[in-house]
Amino acid sequence: MDAIEAIRKRRSIRRFTDDVVPKADLETIVDAGRLAATGSNRQPWDFVVVTDRTMIAQLTVSGAWMAKASAVIAVIMDPRSRWWIEDGAAAIENMLLASTSLGYGACWVEGDALPHEEELKTLLGIPTKKRVLALIPVGVPAETPAPEKKPLEQVLHWERY
Ligand SMILES: Cc1cc2nc3c(=O)[nH]c(=O)nc-3n(C[C@H](O)[C@H](O)[C@H](O)COP(=O)(O)O)c2cc1C
Q1: pLDDT tens digit string along 66-124?
Q2: Which of 5, 53, 109, 113 has its CA 20 to 30 A from that of 66?
Q3: What are the angstrom distances between the C-alpha of 83 and each of 45, 47, 62, 113, 131?
Q4: Got the DSSP string for 62-123?
Q5: From atom 22 of ligand 1, which residue's Cα is the shortest distance away?
């Protein structure tokens, strides 16, 4: 699947089958995050991949559906870098697209993760000075949600707003 196809196909997936995502594919997904654009090439990230069922069950900050994920990737950022949020977002999107490209489903869980940040840090042994920007549950999709996107002509402006 090429990049444009993956971009068009990616949706937030919140229903998964019981199938397992192989470790090699999880590594490919995290590698896509590692290769993202990053301000001044600071690369202020670490990625914790959780596959333990008991631990995944404790990471269900956005609802019970997360427990069915084959793995959850925690995106850990160093806030001393000026662009840590932008860098983290770039890495997250790369990982969502890589997941789609490999035939998996994933979801960017940040809105529901941030209020649980201290709890997540304790669970995952994250150093105090680091931030947990997002969790990404990954699995084999059991749904194909339709895109609900604004039409291109509504958001594309040529030359001037
Ligand atoms: C910054 C950010 C935070 C998000 N937080 C959550 C979340 O906490 N829980 C969740 O289920 N989805 C979350 N999402 C996924 C969005 O709900 C989803 O991207 C949006 O509805 C558009 O759907 P799509 O991803 O299928 O295009 C988040 C997405 C972004 C970019």
Answers
A1: 999 999 999 999 999 999 999 999 999 999 999 999 999 999 999 988 999 999 999 99
A2: 5
A3: 11, 17, 26, 20, 13
A4: T-GGGGG-SEEEEEEE-TTSTTHHHHHHHHHHHHHHHHHHTT-EE--B-TTTGGGHHHHHHH
A5: 12
